[in-house]
Amino acid sequence: MTGVPLAEELLLLAYDDETGKATMPRISLDLGMAAAVLIELALAGRIAYAEGALTVVDATPTGEPITDDVLARIAADTPHSPSSWVQRLRHGLRDKVLGDLCAHGVVRDVDETELGFIHVHRYPVLDPSVEAETRQRLAAALTGEAPDERTAALATLVAVLRMESALGATGEDATEALRRLEEIASGAGFSGEVGLESSVVRPSVGLVVAALGRAVQAALGPRR
What we know:
8% strand; 224 residues; mainly alpha
């Protein structure tokens, strides 16, 4: 596996650089990061969908600790559907990803106290270059440049999680951004009708994306 993990890219897009606070519902972000790790593993050829469940097809570590922890967990557990894994993995994952970003000097942990006893953590950006590269790739894809597989996967997650505003798009621009994001997802084979005939990776990713979409709709309700 190469590059910044998808879950880290997603989280950086979802947090305000200056305030260090999430700009979207945390439940959908948690679901999205769980899906991002599963998609990471599918793209790396470590897991695949078979007989109703995600299963490990290659237990070789990717070299990314959080991703490898999930890989080991899937390998050790009984088979579960994509929907089940999205729900199972979302608890505590955001804190692990934030901890990893802090350890690499990308963000810093600001521990504040409200009302004299409530601890609140903020994560303002220290190194903006990581997020800047992510945004640059997405911006190029939105303006028509053909994205690579990882960028297409990230665009798919942004669309399903209703994160157009995180890209700075509002009003008609947001509508157009969503249309292009969905076009990228469909073109990459990560959404719409998925079948097992053409490849193992794409239906595995597509089924995780579909599970994420259902979970987000259950949590937030229909798009307005």
